[in-house]
């Protein structure tokens, strides 16, 4: 399988991967297709994915390649470093370890109407007309809102982000600090917001944006993503899909590129790791030079 992803540049030089020195290997334990297209995904050094039924029921601890099976499968959870949460009347919160996944108590939540978010010790869920944000065992603050149900939420530095339709067919990223009302932040057309490492990132028409809530600073740089899938983001490095004339490849802000025949899709980024799907399989690219990750 590994050879199937090698591409050649003019003159025969290999193009996969490019940028920082890296190696790519298949992750056979996470090869099943998930019913929730946000998975497989990285939860720090754990790769979380699905079994044959398409439900999220396992993780691989990447430093040792250890497979961890969950006590119960989940249909549409959210992840942060070392944590998996699925809101609902029977809230399920798992703490991931090097060899096991341990259930932790969490206050029950109303049945959600879309993807949740967890980070910085906070949990957030959405309904058709309301957002909820709070600690796992404490009271949760509510905000009237109209989130687009298929769009994930994001948490960073105590802020909650979501996507609303501000006009027919026009989404926009909004943020809320848990007090008062929410406010628009992304440009019209912004979507696929993600939070990690105290920052947020999202896709805008023709650009990738990264927001630092502490400095209230937004950085943008050109990118043609096609809007099909979200970003991989750990607070520092952003990875996204690029649309070529023939297929889809991956590009990261540190220069890493994942190219090959067919489509390289659905990036998930943390530290030295980039997880993605290609031609029906799950692959892990590992940078040779590790660094301190920004994810949390």
Structure description:
By secondary structure, the chain is mostly beta strands. It has a domain at 24-108. It has no helices and 28 strands. It has strands at 22-26, 41-43, 46-50, 56-61, 66-74, 78-80, 83-86, 92-96, 101-104, 117-119, 122-127, 130-135, 140-144, 154-156, 159-167, 170-176, 183-184, 191-196, 199-204, 207-212, 217-222, 232-233, 238-243, 248-252, 257-258, 264-270, 273-278, 281-287. The strands form seven sheets. The chain has a four-stranded antiparallel β-sheet, with no helix packed on it. The chain has a four-stranded antiparallel β-sheet with strand order 2-3-4-5, with no helix packed on it. A hairpin with a 5-residue loop joins strand 3 (46-50) and strand 4.
Residue-averaged pLDDT, rounded? Answer: 86
- How much of the sequence lies in strands comes to over 45%
Q: Widest sheet: strand order?
A: 1-28-27-26
Radius of gyration: 18 Å
What does the overall shape look like?
Answer: globular
Q: Major sheet: size, sense and barrel closure?
A: 4 strands, antiparallel
Number of helices: 0
Structural class: mainly beta
Written as H for each helix and E for each strand, in order along the chain, the element string is EEEEEEEEEEEEEEEEEEEEEEEEEEEE
Q: Please report the total strand number as a whole number.
A: 28
Which spans have pLDDT < 50 for at least 5 consecutive residues? 1-16, 290-296
Q: Whole-Å distance between the termini? A: 32 Å
Fraction of residues in helix: under 10%
